[in-house]
Structures are given as structure tokens and as C-alpha cells.
Amino acid sequence: MSINFYSKFFPLIKKGVASVPFQLRPLSTRTDLFNVENKSEEYAIFRLNKPPVNSLNLEYLNLLNNQLDEFERNPKLKGIILTSDVKSTFSAGVDILEMYKCEPKRLEAVWRAVQDFWIKLYGSKKIYIAALNGHVLALGCAIAMSCDYRIMVDNDKTKIGITAVLLGINAPSWVKNTMINTIGFRETEKSLKFAKIYNPHQALKLGLIDEIVSSDKLLSRSEEVMKTWCKIPTLAREMTKESMRSETLGKLVNNREVDVQEFITSTMDPHLQDNLGKYLASLKKK
Ligand SMILES: CC/C=C\C/C=C\CCCC/C=C/C(=O)SCCNC(=O)CCNC(=O)[C@H](O)C(C)(C)COP(=O)(O)OP(=O)(O)OC[C@H]1O[C@@H](n2cnc3c(N)ncnc32)[C@H](O)[C@@H]1OP(=O)(O)O
């Protein structure tokens, strides 16, 4: 069995690795919009920081995609804890302003960047732990589900889920598949069909998250789990992850154009545009 999982799906990245020798990275990387702290050679903490809700627009997705590539290029790095510095929100998903009254070319670029992000994250050989400090909605939920493990703060007001259907959106098949692989077919069907939003205890019961901790323990517990997992034989862990995920991953990798066209067609639909306008207004009114 091939163990070269990442390069199988990212031949260009593979080419980059082959032509650019690995260089030692600085201890941490800080931009205005995220922060990477290398806790040891083996793992890093990756904090999203785009207030007010870490919404994902094209520029931010491109920035995050570059950072995922950066992680992938570091052979010593085994795992990443993905979290957010924004108070009470992990991510509210795609920036709705990218979808409302949008230019088709820009929308296409946004969706390709969303696909890239999911393919890189879901297809990574590294260990990703989602440390969910706050709300985890829509694409934010798909991102969390694409990690290997989810730990969420114990706060009844914190929400996790995907409510696409309320706006007339049929979630893309790779989002559905990611959810099916996390909580099973029946619960996914109920969750998406009825736009279910869960608090942490409901999500834990469902298996949508794996642990709940108090907010002051979120990072220490995530690091504890990460350290344990870093001790697992790397090759076997990577091969297991590949064998568990390659089928689902391949379904999007081999079907990207159809997925792009479906997204553009459904988003440009006047009825959906109308819904998005009302939804945006309701968010602003609060
Ligand atoms: C629209 C499509 C819905 C679902 C699609 C789902 C799945 C399909 C998967 C693939 C496609 C993915 C698409 C998406 O991800 S679209 C994004 C959908 N996201 C949401 O529906 C979340 C909306 N936000 C909220 O519910 C709340 O903001 C949240 C996260 C619970 C935080 O609440 P709170 O702390 O009270 O903050 P505010 O609501 O006051 O928000 C502050 C500020 O941010 C603006 N904002 C919130 N979310 C978004 C967003 N996703 N995009 C752009 N802007 C957003 C909000 O309007 C406020 O703006 P203001 O100017 O008033 O400060």
C-alpha cells in the first residue's frame, strides 16, 4: 500500500518539496489573522484570529491553505492543534458576503479555495486536534469534523452544526460524507435535513465531538491528547488514516469541477440570493 498519501493527491506540492530542500522554520509564525506556535518539534498550535467570527473569505482561505502546506512540508511535525483566539467563536464558516450578490468568477475562486482547504485538511497525514473554544458553524463544522479529534468547551450557549437547508442549500456531498464518517448516516440525515444545532453535551452524545472540558483546560487537555498520539508509531498511524479516508477524499478530488459548478449554480439562484440577503440582515440586526 502506498504511504505517500499527501503527495498522491498533491503532485505539485510534492514537486515543491522535491525541489526545495527543507529548511528549519522559525519558532513561531504570527500574522494579523492567525498565529502558529511550535510547542515542540512534534506539534504546533494553530490559532485562527479573524474577528468577529473567523469567517472564511477568499484571501483568508488562501492564507490558511498556504499555512497547511507549510505544515505538510515539515517532516518533523506530527500534529497540529487547531483552535481560535476569537472569543466565543471557532468559525462561523464561509464569509456570507462572498456568496451574496457575488461575481461568478470570484465565487468560483472562493469555492476552489474551500475545496483545497478541505482536501488538505482531511487528506493530511498529520494529527489534527480541533480545540473548539466557541461556535462551530457551517463550514466551520465541516473543518472540525475533518480533524482527527474534537475537544469542545463546556458552555451550553456554544453551538455546533450545519443549517444550510434553512437557506435552501443542499450541503455538498463531501460535507455530507465527512459528517456520515463522523456520526453515521442516520444522524447525518437528521442533522442536515432538520438543520440541527447542538450544544456541547448534545454533540458529545452524538459523537460529533469527542470530549468536553472547561475553557481553562481546553488547550492543556488538547496538548495532553496530542502528546499521547505523537507516541504512536508514525508510519502505521499515517497508513491507517490514509486507508480510512482515501475513498471519501477521492470522491471530491475526482469530482471537483462538478462540485464547483453545482455550488455556483445553486448560489447564484435568485431565490437563494434573496434568502442570503434576509439572513445577512438578520445577523446584523441582533
Ligand atoms: C449561508 C449558508 C449556511 C450554511 C451552509 C452550510 C453548509 C454548507 C457547507 C458548505 C458551504 C458552506 C457555507 C458556509 O459556511 S456559509 C456560512 C454560514 N454561517 C452561519 O450561518 C453562521 C452565522 N453566524 C452566526 O450564527 C453567529 O454570528 C455566531 C457565529 C453564532 C456568532 O454569534 P455572535 O457572537 O452573537 O456574533 P454576531 O452574530 O453578532 O456576528 C458578529 C458579526 O459577524 C457577522 N457574521 C457572522 N457570521 C458571518 C458569516 N458567516 N459571514 C459573514 N459575516 C458573518 C455578523 O453579521 C456580525 O456582523 P456585524 O457587522 O453586525 O458586526
Automatic annotation (TrEMBL):
PROSITE patterns referenced in this protein's UniProt entry, alphabetically: LRR
Pfam family, one: ECH_1
Leader sequence segment: none
GO cellular component, one term: mitochondrial matrix
Protein name: Enoyl-CoA delta isomerase 1, mitochondrial
PANTHER family on file: ENOYL-COA DELTA ISOMERASE 1, MITOCHONDRIAL (PTHR11941:SF45), ENOYL-COA HYDRATASE-RELATED (PTHR11941)
Gene Ontology MF term list: delta(3)-delta(2)-enoyl-CoA isomerase activity
Zinc-finger among keywords: no
InterPro entries: ClpP/crotonase-like_dom_sf, Enoyl-CoA_hydra/iso, Leu-rich_rpt
Primary subcellular site in the record, as a coarse category: mitochondrion
Catalytic activity field: (3Z)-dodecenoyl-CoA = (2E)-dodecenoyl-CoA; (2E)-tetradecenoyl-CoA = (3Z)-tetradecenoyl-CoA; (3Z)-decenoyl-CoA = (2E)-decenoyl-CoA; (3Z)-octenoyl-CoA = (2E)-octenoyl-CoA
GO biological process: fatty acid beta-oxidation
Pathway: Lipid metabolism; fatty acid beta-oxidation
Compartmental location: Mitochondrion matrix
